[in-house]
Structure formats: C-alpha cells, structure tokens
Amino acid sequence: MKGLNVLAAFLGGAAVGATLGILFAPEKGEDTRAKIADILRKKGIRLSRNEMENLVDEIAAEIKNEADE
User: Keywords of this protein's UniProt record, alphabetized (predicted)?
Assistant: First the structure.
C-alpha cells in the first residue's frame, strides 16, 4: 500500500508540475488554451471554449491554493 501512495504522490506532483509549466510558459494564453484543447480532442474529450476557460481557471486556482499553503 505504501508503494501505491508513493506512486500517487509522484503522479500528482507530475501533473501539478506540468500544469505549472503550461500556465507559466512564455506563450500567449490563447495559444496555450488551443494546445490544451487539441490534446484533449485527440484523447476524445470535447470541450467548448467556455468549458475550456473554466477548466484552465480551475487549474490555476488550485495551483494558487497549493502555492499559498
């Protein structure tokens, strides 16, 4: 069970790191959102522009909360 916790922590850290890298990349937000939408479409996930903006806002808020703790 301990190994599973380590794996979960690693994957969680990797996801947060990837998200931070995307959010703070030197590209314009519009370009980054388009790339995220393309990746999600390739995975079979379809989001409207409004849903994508909400998702990005949620991720950014979550990261900010983690950074504040």
Answer: Membrane, Transmembrane, Transmembrane helix
Angle between helices 2-23 and 49-68 (to 10 degrees): 110
Q: Residue 43 in 3-state DSSP?
A: coil
Structural domain spans, the chain: 2-68
- For 18-59, the pLDDT digits (tens) are 877 777 767 676 777 777 777 878 888 787 878 877 877 787
**What 3-state class would DSSP assign to 18?**
helix
Angle (deg, nearest 10), helices 49-68 and 29-42 = 110
Question: Helix 2-23 to helix 29-42 angle, to the nearest 10 degrees?
Answer: 140
End-to-end CA distance of the chain: 27
